[in-house]
Amino acid sequence: MAHPFRLYSTLTRDAADFVPQEEGKVGLYVCGMTVYDHAHVGHARAMVVFDSFVRYLRHRGWAVTFVRNFTDVDDKIIRRANETGEAPLDLANRFITSFQEDVAALGLIKPDHEPRVSTSIEDIVAMIAELVAGGHAYASEGSVWFSVGSCPGYGKLSGQKVEELQNPDEGSGKRSPNDFALWKGAKPGEPAWDSPWGAGRPGWHIECSAMSRNTLGRTFDIHGGGLDLVFPHHENEIAQSECANHAPYSNYWMHNGLLTMASGQKMGKSLGNVIGVKTALAAFPAETLRLYYLQNHYRSPLPWGDDALPEALAMLARLYEAREKAEAMKGDETAQMVARDLGPDAQALLELLQGFEARFYEALDADFNTGKAVGLALQLARALNRFSNHKQALKRGGPLGRQALAAFEHVRAAVGLLGMSSADFHEEVKAKRLAAMGVSRADVEAHLAGRVEARASKDWARADAIRGQLDALGILVMDTATGVEWRVRLGAAE
């Protein structure tokens, strides 16, 4: 059975109980990439947020149809192709391949449909024809324009008045500065398709209206995308869709906040301040980015800086280390007995565990508040790490450890964190962080071997000196009952 939840809609500017078009089902359309370059970490926020949202919905019993498009016909693609000397569609295909590599590296689920503009031309032309026939669009000099004045509700998403707006589409034949292009007449060297108005290509906005209708129907549940798409893209989608379909377009509008730099600017290619997904993933495990994005509410702006991913990695390591400690705990007493006998830290842990599941899902069910949900997981990890310091925790803490493992499983299933084995996580951290730090693994292991040799010969001064050298390299050495272990030293995460 699908569990109810509340969702904030940009359209109504309020959170409300989600009411689906069809019982137990969710149709979700998310605006994807305009593929004229590699994806950056700003793009990845939307990708991870909606990936996590789909995971959560399915985990809670909803049957989700997830659609994310590719814009592979666009002015930006044409300009970039002219710069590189490629055919526009060849360039777009190259960056679609790059995007799919990033998606796989980030561990994202595959959408049920990934339509492209170039393969949706027939649907787009048909929708434009409906708008022309209904008096909502007009042909002029080989192009077709949407008449904003024909749509009484225009501006309801962005909250702006029509007389104060001006769509950025330029071209001859517009009757009003507010009108926007549905079909752009062919120009030499640009991709073009036949249409009733002559050869040309789609405008930016009509593509999503046609592709969402083809995959989800004339009215669907949730439309998602970045906050920067509210105007003009999503505003124009609503207008053309509702005028063509004679029905509401999307019942809920879900917009994620943007990454912001220290200057207050958003991250964007045009601003020259982007960090590529490939660059970030070369230095950090993919779940680092996921935790970084999910630590705040999806609608909030998210600050980006040099410390963003190191701090997120430190938090992620706390979760993995807490889960490791829970896995190692033994004992078959009741959790209440353990809490009674082992003191305040055990009692505090038990109290957190008893209410964890309810609070965790309460956070996610209230407008997908991952910031609060992740905060609860980190709170549990801190409590578990404190309890693990008790001398009896390993021997008797099993009942609490098993409850903690069940709690961490909720985190994995609902939002995609803690999806690796601890061994794989630590190995990935070592491989990526050592490379980013410019430290050779062979050099680390040589130092460790020298330290083992020094300890075996009781040369404690040399052993301590080598530990100091490793510490200077950012390597934490741990002497255990079964031998020596080492990890990359990470920053504090509270």
Write structural notes for this entry.
The model has no long low-confidence stretch (mean pLDDT 94). The chain is α/β, with parallel strands linked by helices and 494 residues long. The protein is elongated. It folds into 3 domains: 6-290, Rossmann fold (3-Layer(aba) Sandwich); 324-419, Four Helix Bundle (Hemerythrin (Met), subunit A) (Up-down Bundle); 423-488, no CATH class. The protein has helices at 41-59, 75-84, 88-106, 121-133, 206-216, 230-245, 277-283, 286-294, 308-328, 335-342, 344-365, 370-387, 393-396, 398-415, 422-437, 441-456, 460-472, and strands spanning 6-9, 14-17, 25-30, 63-68, 137-140, 143-146, 180-185, 200-202, 220-226, 250-256, 259-260, 302-303, 475-480, 483-488. A hairpin with a 2-residue loop joins strand 13 (475-480) and strand 14.
